[in-house]
Amino acid sequence: MESVAGWERVLHELAGQRRGRLLGFASMLAGPDDAEDLVQEAIVATFSRGRGFEDVASAEAYVRRAIATRYVDRVRSQSADRRRAERVAPAEAVPDASERVATVVTLHEALKELAPRPRACVTLRYLSEMSVREVAHELGLSEGAVKRYTSDGIRALNALLGTDEPEDVGETAAVVPMRGGVR
Q: Domains (ranges, CATH) in the chain?
C-alpha cells in the first residue's frame, strides 16, 4: 500500500501542474460555472477512497474519467428531474420546444446542446487531442461507440453552427486482404 506521503505528493502535483487542464476539460463539458465544482468533486472522490497512483499521469487520467462520469450522471439526474416536473406541472408552465432559439453563436454554446456522451467524446477527441483508443479507455466505452458518439456530435455541431466539417473521426482499422480471397 502506498504511503501517505506518496498519495499526497501525487495529489499536490496533480493540483499544481494539471489543475488547469482538468478545469479546461470540465469547462468544455459542463461550462465554466460548474467546472470548478466538477473538478473538486472528482478529485475528492478519487483520493478519498485511498487509491494509490504510480504517477501524476495515471491520477490525471482517473480524475478525467471521474469528471466525465460525474458530468453524465448530473445531466441524467437533471433530465429525470425535468421529466418529473413536466409530469406534475401545469401545461402552460412547460415551455414549447419549438420556441427554442435555433442559432448558436459559439462553440461552447453549441457543445452545451449535445447529449452528454457525444459532448464528452467530441471534447476529449478534438479539444483534448486524444485518440479514439484513448477516449474509449477514458470513458470506458468501445472504440466503435466513441466513433459513433463523436460522429453524431460533429453532425449535431455542424447543424447548430451552420458549418460543414467532415464527420470522419479517423483511426479506422486497415483492411487487410486475406489469403485466398474474401471469406
A: 1-94 (no CATH), 96-164 (1.10.10.10)
132: its cell numbers: 479514439
- Look at the block and give the residue holding cell 491520477: 59
* Residues 169/134, Cβ–Cβ less than 8 Å: no
What is the reported pTM? 0.52
Element (H, E) at 42: helix 32-48
**What is the rounded CA–CA span in Å between residue 118 and residue 85?**
26
Quick: pLDDT tens for 31-80: 888 889 999 999 888 888 777 787 888 889 899 999 988 888 888 888 77
Residue with cell 472528482: 42
Lookup: cell for 31: 461550462
The shares of helix, strand and coil residues in the chain, as percent rounded to the nearest 5, are: 70, 0, 30
